[in-house]
Amino acid sequence: MADTLRQLLTDTAHIAADYLDGLQHRPVAPAGSAVQQLAELLEPLPDRGCSATQVLQLLDRYVSPATLGMAGPRFYGFVIGGALPATLAANWLASAWDQNTALAKVTPGTSLLEQIALNWLLELLDLPRESGAAFVTGATVANFCALAAARHKVLRDAGWNVEADGLFGAPEITVIAGEEAHPTLLKSLGMLGLGRNRIVRVPTDAQGRIMAGRMPAIHGPTIVCTQAGNVNTGAFDPVADICRQVAGNNAWVHVDGAFGIWARAVPELQPHVRGLELADSWATDAHKWLNVPYDCGIALTRHPDALKAAMAITAEYLPTDSEDRNPADFTPELSRRARGVEVWAALKSLGRRGLVEMVQRNCRQARRFAEALSAADCAILNDVVLNQVLVQFGNQRQCDRVIAAIQDDGTCWAGGTVWQNRPAMRISVCSWATTDRDVERSIEAILRAVRETGSE
Ligand SMILES: Cc1ncc(COP(=O)(O)O)c(C=O)c1O
Question: For a 10 Å CB count at each end of the chain, is N or C smaller?
């Protein structure tokens, strides 16, 4: 390797390590001045290039300080997660390999890692071992892939080939989802031509769970969308009841388990996820609770042929005749990065025990937030069954003020939401890096913000 390239990569490693160290001490939210400084990057397309070192220096000077500390230990916004050390390192190495992981014959190493990661996931989550999978960009696209497989199978069973003949003139598919389905699931249904507005919505309870007794009767080709882990409350739909209700019909049950599906690995969380294996497909994210770098989501289905029928292509110039699994036979993309590498690295470095311990720790930390905030008279709006905590600080104006004060203080970061008409702050604990000490520091900062803004 040229000395300059080696030096560049070594410098990059040092800069990245300094950045990650710095997240322990700097405010989680970027300073306003750092965001303003980004304007320095706004320049016309350069006619002449510059050295790679200069490129790296510009990135670190202007963009590092303007980042939100999502990779740090006290970031509780959205449902994000960090990047486990082994996954970050694996991601760098995989970028150096630069393998277009579409076909097993062409990229045997990274294709095999994806296959191993799939086998391990099925074992860890105790899902049907014959299941197939698509390693994609996130839960949105994982939902899309699983629902494309569903669309294929329910129409094929009704005598229609949707990939060949499209949806015009096809037998009608009834799509059912809970009132609290994630908006990206609705988007996926829209992208598949199944329509966001024609979905039959089933009422949900105070935690956002589908009320199984309110499910409509099933007639004809049907797709039922359930969820494991509501994005606000962390609650689980009664998937097993729903699967039993629709059994014997031409119905496909899908589970959006973007972050909740990892509960399958944890003994004490089994009451929430027992029977999930009865469903036809599951979508999850690796970039959330598995703590791999962006971007990575996984669609799993017990009907790999249906997924393949929806996604696979053939072309004369592509060596698709492999005995081994071709990753791109299951994904919307043909050219794709080696997405299974970090999943493999996460599972290899954590092992089953490490994964279970991380999920248990984050759940315990979420309960600690709820207990401490409720002891200080803040209302907790959800049953804290997983890693999500909804805390109310009075009316919308008061809530906004407390959240702004917390973000300004910079010890930690959480964002707002509205839960069943009540304004709240959402605390999502899903980082491998969060220690109990981080949680105590964050609780102190939140209560300080409540006191200083004078909210109840
Ligand atoms: C339940 C659920 N489904 C889907 C998604 C979308 O995931 P992604 O942003 O990774 O596509 C999320 C994101 O938070 C989610 O919580």
Answer: N
